Amino acid sequence: MRFTFPIVTLSKGGAQRMLAEVANGLAEKGHDITILLSKSGVIEFDMKATIKVVPDHFPIDSFPPADVIVSNFYTTVPPCQLAAEKGLGTHIRYTHCYEPIFMPNQAETFLSYHVTPHLFVVSEAQKKLVDVNHGLNAKVIPNGINPVFKNLHTKKTNGPLQISAIVRLSEGGLWHRQQNYLIEQLRIVKLAHPEVQINLFCPPAELTISKSLQEIKMLNEFTFHTPANDQELCMLYNQTDIFVTSSIFESSLLTGLEAMACGAALVTTYAGGNMDYAKHYKNCLVSSRMDNQLSKDIMTLIKDPFLRHYLIVNGEAEAKKWTIQRTVDTFEEKAREILTRLGQ
User: Looking at domain 2-144+323-341, which CATH architecture does it have?
Assistant: First the structure.
């Protein structure tokens, strides 16, 4: 099949990672993949698909003939629909976030879900949101983690316990990540347990441009790491005993899965999309943001090595189910079903 993916950017991030992984996976299976990359975007993944840099508004003449045109973020929906109406392919939206909840222009983002009936989502929570709010029957394409993220069994048995989290550029909103709450909770942990080491992982480019991240780093309360690639991030996950996430709304949450795959015990907040894999007291500790107990859960695992080990073992087993191969195979299957139903 021929697929066209208009993409705003391929910078480091969960949604961009899955677009890159699916496009690469389809290319490896022999499909003809073209990525239309906005000229203001960047590429931070190794890509196996054909990449064509185009103006930011994705003009109609940039679309090659295809079987499937895949929109994602809401701004890519109108040009994809226009291309579909011109006979350049069937429009399928593959959405990795539910924008009406956290983007300010709800009139535009909400209506973007009323453009094509062919909708792929990444979790059961996102499916419920879309189905209830828009009367659709979205298909779940479960996210997967890159096989580079695995337990290397390099964790040190001596030295301070390692607690880690990822921090991102916070300027411009993205309140749902609750980054200030995360830092506050980690400070509580450090005050109660000065013997532990707390690490913050951050994309290098974001630390360079983010004043808020630079201010946190300059306080020297935590150890900052700026992994340049997945291999370096995998090493950091593998050195981690307890990994923490604080988002309260995510259609999916790959970082928790990646950390579990690398042998870290996960402490997380309920975020909707992470409930497809996060099972309280079975493979992680989960709390509601309302409970305000992220720091308490971290300290529970600091003090209880047996529970920590139990969650690590079960978390790694759960993460093994979430493969990129399953993601790509499901995407291919559901796309083919749509084309068959349409007689194409």
Answer: 3-Layer(aba) Sandwich (3.40)
Q: Locate the DSSP E strands across the chain.
A: 2-7, 32-38, 50-54, 68-71, 90-94, 119-121, 139-140, 162-166, 197-201, 223-225, 242-244, 265-269, 284-287
- Domain range 162-319, its CATH number among 3.40.50.1820, 2.30.110.10, 3.40.50.2000, 3.40.30.10: 3.40.50.2000
Q: What is the pTM of this model?
A: 0.93
Half-sphere exposure of 190 (CA within 13 A, CB side): 16
- Cβ(329)–Cβ(141) under 8 Å? no
Task: Give the dihedral sign, CA 15/16/21/27.
Answer: positive
Condensed to tens digits (0 to 9), the pLDDT of residues 204-226 reads: 988 999 999 999 999 999 999 99
Rounded mean pLDDT of 192-211?
94
Residue 308: left if φ>0, alpha if ψ -120 to 50, beta else—which one? alpha
Summarised one tens digit per residue, pLDDT across range 129-187 is 999 999 999 999 999 999 999 999 999 888 999 999 999 987 766 788 899 999 999 99
Cα-Cα end-to-end distance for the chain: 11
